[in-house]
Each structure stands twice: as C-alpha cells, then as structure tokens.
Design brief:
Keywords: Membrane, Sigma factor, Transcription, Transcription regulation, Transmembrane, Transmembrane helix. The protein is mainly alpha-helical. It has 10 helices and no strands.
C-alpha cells in the first residue's frame, strides 16, 4: 500500500496491520501520535529527553509485542495515552521509592561508624568500589564521579554536561543499582555512608 493510502486508514486498521507485522503501518501510527504523546509526557515530567525516551519505549513495546496486541476496550489513542500515563506514574513512583530507600539506608549505616571490622575492611572496600565505578558505562560514570568527587549538585552536573536534571538523576539511580548488585549490601551501605551520595538533592 502506498503512503497516501496508509495515511487515510483508521487507527484500528493500522493496528490490525501492525499485528500482522506491517512496519509501514507502525511508522504511520508512530508519526500520527509521537508528537502528541511527547507533549503529553513533557507536561507531566518537564523533561525533554526523558519524555522522548518514555514515548519511544511505548512504541517499542507495541512493536515487540505486536502479535499479542488486543485492544478490545477503548480506542487506539486512549491505549497510547494510558501507556504513556502509566510510565509517567512509574517515573514519579521510582523517584519516591529511591528517596525513601536512601533515607532508610542512612539510618541503617550510622552504627557502622564505630564498627572495628568496618574500619579494617574500609581500604579493601574502597578499592572494590573504585573498580566497580570504573566499570560503569562512560556517561553514567562521568555523572557519578562529578557527584561523588566533584560534590556537584544535579543542576550543576546538568549544566556542565548539557543534559537534563532528570537524566542526571536517572544515571545516578542506575549506577547505584549496579553498585548495589556488584558490591553486596554491607559494602554498598559503607559506600553510601562514606560518600554521602543522595540522588534527588
């Protein structure tokens, strides 16, 4: 089908074609709603890059799961907006969870200050921490080190690197998750205590 023919199809017709693996129908649906969904997401989270990523993730999920798509209730448009809205909610939920998590960790790690075993192991743990930080993806590591060693705020890092504050926070959040897995709980707690690293300040 030519381009003009596809552009005249309804959303439901496009969806049927997408389910059958038609990439031109998928492109038409993307072109039809990408800008609108971006505006909707951006109004909520106030971040251009994160909004673009969020909308692209919605469409990527649709294409990856196209054979199982089944929108029985509502319209294709309402499905797309609901998908974006759910991801926006996840963004705010994850930020709140991380804030509460780090607050509780601060209380947990205070007793470690007077722990002899902690002091003995601190040098080895520091080496391990440096090794795992060096293994982080380049941009994530750059953001992380500016916060850890440069003592810069998210806003200052964002201005220096030309990225958004939310992107800075996302890099730090992902870095902490990686370090949590690599270091183990005790080393991770000591790391947070030593460097006083908080994501959303």
């Amino acid at each position: 089908m030519n381009t003009s023919g596809i552009s005249s199809l309804s959303d439901n017709d496009l969806l049927t074609m997408i389910v059958n693996g038609d990439s031109s129908a998928f492109k038409e649906l993307f072109d039809r709603y990408n800008a609108l969904l971006f505006i909707y997401a951006h109004k909520k989270i106030k971040d251009k890059e994160a909004s673009q990523d969020l909308v692209q993730d919605v469409f990527a999920t649709i294409w990856q799961n196209r054979s199982r798509l089944n929108i029985e209730h509502g319209t294709v448009a309402s499905y797309l907006y609901a998908s974006v809205r759910n991801r926006v909610i996840n963004v705010f939920r994850d930020r709140k969870i991380d804030e509460r998590h780090l607050s509780s960790l601060q209380n947990l790690i205070r007793p470690l200050n007077n722990n002899t075993d902690h002091r003995v192991r601190e040098r080895d743990i520091s080496r391990l921490i440096d090794k795992e930080i060096a293994a982080l993806p380049p941009k994530m590591r750059e953001v992380f080190e500016l916060r850890r060693k440069g003592h810069m705020s998210n806003k200052e890092i964002a201005l220096q690197l030309g990225i958004s504050e939310l992107t800075v926070a996302t890099h730090q959040k992902r870095a902490l998750r990686i370090l949590r897995i690599k270091l183990g709980l005790l080393s991770y707690l000591i790391f947070l205590l030593k460097f006083h690293l908080y994501l959303f300040h």
